[in-house]
Protein 1
Amino acid sequence: MRIPRFTTVFALMLAVAAGLDAQPKKKKLLAIGKSVGFQHDSVSHALGTIWKLGQETGLWDTFIRTDTQLITKKKLGGNAKNLDYFDAIFFYTTGELDMDEEQRASFLQFIRDGKGFIGTHSATDTFYKWPEYGELVGGYFNEHPWHQLVGVFVEDRDFLATRHFPPRIEITDEIYQFKDYSRDRVRVLMSIDVSTVDLTKKGVHRTDKDFAVTWVRQYGKGRMFYSSLGHREEVWDRPDIQKMWVEGVKWAMGLTPGDATPRPKKSD
């Protein structure tokens, strides 16, 4: 029996429509670049890169803000969005940001309930007077003894955000050390090769020679991804670092699996 042409065309249109419906919805990332203190020159470049990566991969739309207004569960007027609209929050921030008690509680609950938080560089130089934030991120900035070419060990090459790296890379950037940081609470993905830095330099406080660079942690049902890299604009232009951020955002948004179980430092 011959099938009428219009029936075939109609069936094809339905198949195309079904395929379009099957496409996953793009995620929404709230990216905040706000400084209450030191102003990093690379903030705009970093936020632009995160926006670009979302567009290139087609996985997320980035909403860039220089304020914290949308970090709330309150209904905002006009076309303003609140946390209900987003899947993850990205911080390139410094200092004590202007967030009231409702915003702080909503921010933490947003992540505990299964959403994501991504922090870069000075996100650990933020909210010193809010201990719950430090617990979420996994540590606080405690000076940057080195700004130079350093070796970085890729400790976890099973995790998707660092799988593409070789066991060791070299990078020129401002290197942080941390306080209130412990491998009992986070899973370290990358750390400094201490043979490439001067441990006797003024400002070096850690005696355990443990200078983490990138780590993850589970926070309730949510996920936290942090990397201290990104002080310099050219760091954001490196394809391997951009790949790290793509996979880090994907993981934080729950798009990919990844073990965030803390584990001790491997013996030298």
Protein 2
Amino acid sequence: MKEIRTSISEDYPEIYFIEGQRDGKYPYSHSILFRDTLIDTGISSGFLRKLKRKAEINNVILSHWHEDHIAGNRLLPGASFMAHQDDVPVIEDVSKMYEYYHVKDHPDQMELFQSILEGLRLEDTTINTMISDRDVIRIYDFYHLQVIHTPGHTKGHCCFYEKKSKIAFLADIDLSTLGPWYGGADSNVMEFEQSIKKVQKFDIEIAVTSHKGVIYRAKEIQKNLDEYLNKIYERDEKILNLLSETTPKDLEDLSGNNIVYPRYTEYEIYEKLAERVMIKSHLEKLSKQGKTSLKNSGYILN
């Protein structure tokens, strides 16, 4: 049987990296365990059942509301759940996901999401404790887990920093090669940009992300964060290069140019919708910066 629980540091043997199914690729994600406190439950039902046989889980912290991070909640009925107040409405009523993903008015995308969410067997979860930026969650009065509110991916997205060990769980500031994702109704590219810069100010020696895994050494972590942040700037440039000073272009003109996704996956039907939302967020950002302006329902370069 594959070991899904791995100690991250010899100095802190009770902090574990919990591997998600399919190496944490969507619709699953990696987690981290501090003694009896688990952050996120999307490792897969099978993996979570294995983990429960090896570890006592009394507390669950949810980094944000996305399905690949909360799908295992139903398997921990006795646990106490925590989440940021901005994400609580969706966690407590998962039917809101269709609205937040912009799919209610798109039958094809709606059908895709229904199949994913039903497959994950999502259930509403009551949040017992709401967390806020700079809160410190004490775990057996030994580990002090600081909440870092990092909106952009979702409004209530949070990262977590354990001060003593300098270990951070960055959740979906996931340092993946795709780059940041901000295609939901509560997403925002400018907030995501600021959240990455906020995380960079912490002295992190070991970082765990939801889809990339464990990254060691502060220098390597900062390099990964820089590259991740640069993905946003690269998308800015792609959009600016498609615009002109005379001919307005709207979202329809800009979509389908692989500005976010270098190639589409089996979820292409939704990825194109999300990409459109993300392009719109960039256009709003570029307009605020004075680089573009709206003309005849389209955008031109200033």
Protein 3
Amino acid sequence: MTLALDLNKLLIPLSSSGSSLQRAIFSSFSDAPGGFSEEMQEINISFGLEWLIGNVFALRGGYFYSHPKKEDRRYFTMGAGIHYRKIVFDLSYLISTQLRNPLNNTIRVGIGYNF
């Protein structure tokens, strides 16, 4: 069983014209007009749980949240995966918690290879 938590923030400042890569990354943590509290609103949070059965079949569920004043995306996901030798086949279904979300009822398919 795997429990995962992901916190991510885009490392692109509001104004990055003519900035070096390092300067752009570090300035993305201090460029919000609302200060530190607005910077915290730019962090997307997602978490999930995966249950791997016999190293062959996986069941998953999770939730994604971004602040309503920023990207405003909130949805649940559920899915399954099959591990066949080194190849992984994944299927997930997205259930939005918002009335008008273009991602609602999205089916995602993935194929991976384990080295």
Protein 4
Amino acid sequence: MPSSFGFKLNQAFEQHGQLCVGIDPHESLFDAWGLDNNVQGLDYFANKVVELSAGLVGIIKPQVSFFERFGSEGFRVLETTNQRATDAGLLVISDAKRGDIGSTMVAYLDAWLGRGSSFSSDALTVNPFLGLRTASDFMQPYLERGKGVFALVATSNPEGASVQLASRDSQTVAELIWNELHELNQVTSAAGDRFGSFGAVLGATLDFRRFGIRLDQGGVKTPILAPGFGAQGADLRDVRRIFGDASGQVIANVSRSVLESGQQAFQEAIKRASDDLRSGLGG
């Protein structure tokens, strides 16, 4: 049986650290790389990011929307990008934020995590607000093939707070989802796994106490995908201050802060970010 996603994540951490490079092909970044804002520019940019990231980090996170804006041609680039990343030994978290009901959710999971999927993803970000159990009920075949999901829990965009801070039975929506992910990891993880395969997206710029989220839960740990470092304002050197004892389960995502350095300085920007993260983790 293939290793679980949680096991593969732990291996990536041990081999390359906890930094994740987000592939976010903003039009402005094309300018920084001297590329045209078209499919050819997208193809060069995305695949060059994979090439330059391999060996320096263990995880990449393509932001699907920036590929989707080019239609079917953009998706073909994404397929190639993800396959090259997989071939290079990188874990691929596709940031597509899919989520739906019943058979529709199965179709999304098949598209991104299914056997022979063109998108070659190890994990997928999902929107849990149509019911987290809808996704989890259908995840077992994918878990057995080493796949994972990351559910939106508490995000950095200010507009999200009106939903995520809404409460039921004295718990916020964000807290309920976080606790459910923790429970799922306790019952679905393989023996000896440090991390579960059900992860949470938590913005690094947030005060989690405001959401009622307790990060210091025992048992199998819930992986935390943390956008917000770099351009959005959170400092990698503050990762332990932000996440406390849970900092060891954080996938620290950086995108614009390293991508905008341009092609020639990109690897040096990754190395500086990695050093900052190690410092923040106390390494």
